[in-house]
Write a structure and sequence with these properties.
6 helices, 158 residues, globular, homodimer, mainly alpha, 3-stranded antiparallel sheet
Amino acid sequence: MTRWLTDDEQRAWRAFATATRLLTDRLDRDLLAAADMPSTYYELLVLLSEAPERTLRMSELANWTNSKPSRISHAINKLEQKGWVRREPCADDRRGWLAVLTDDGLATLQAAAPPHVASVREHLIDLLTPEQVGHLEDISRVLLGHLGAEPGSPSPPR
Amino acid sequence: MTRWLTDDEQRAWRAFATATRLLTDRLDRDLLAAADMPSTYYELLVLLSEAPERTLRMSELANWTNSKPSRISHAINKLEQKGWVRREPCADDRRGWLAVLTDDGLATLQAAAPPHVASVREHLIDLLTPEQVGHLEDISRVLLGHLGAEPGSPSPPR
């Protein structure tokens, strides 16, 4: 038997589904307007900027973003064309490749960060009370524990 | 001056951003596996099923899903090819078109709903306490108020 959602659950689920889609769309549009890059690129630049020696294996980037290797490879190609990332062969693994954030890439990220943070504040954080920010984190951690990922922490393990 | 996120805000934002992406990916995959349709189609079928006479203007569907008219038109074409929706000219507006959910479309939705609800329960609702479900709704409503949309309510105005 299907356990249908109760009225409370249904209202919460619909509000959440719509709110997250609108928020994602809005943040993507803002980032594109302010920094001319999709949020997937921004996320990759952030991960690289926080990694030791600004370097991560391609496979780590795929894991950390929960993406298929082919999708990461495609995105890194684009970032390489822009001069923001360069690829290097992995010294201890003949088949592996590293992605390294270039100085240009870091400067681009540093220029993109202030408008992006302003956008996250305007459309999410500053709308909530500190208590609600705490609730949001608690709820998100429950989901992450279940869906099997750690949120991008400052320094991904290498 | 950029007001960077505090540590608390940063943790909440990153956890939320990752959790919502993983959740969306997971629900999309489940729906595709169980009902062979992307979540955008499911959402359109739900909206039509809840509208009076299972009918909405194309422009209403675009508004209600916060989508560009061209995107809705494309999706409705696909649903029409599957026999789930049919298009009718709008009696009181020569340039307007209506989308009508067919009996086949309704049957398809009714078959897709149980596994979809099970998936929403498994990966979101059943992980949370009733209090957390309430928090999630409160937070989502704050965002919706700001981003300017009502969540899909049972009967969109016509």
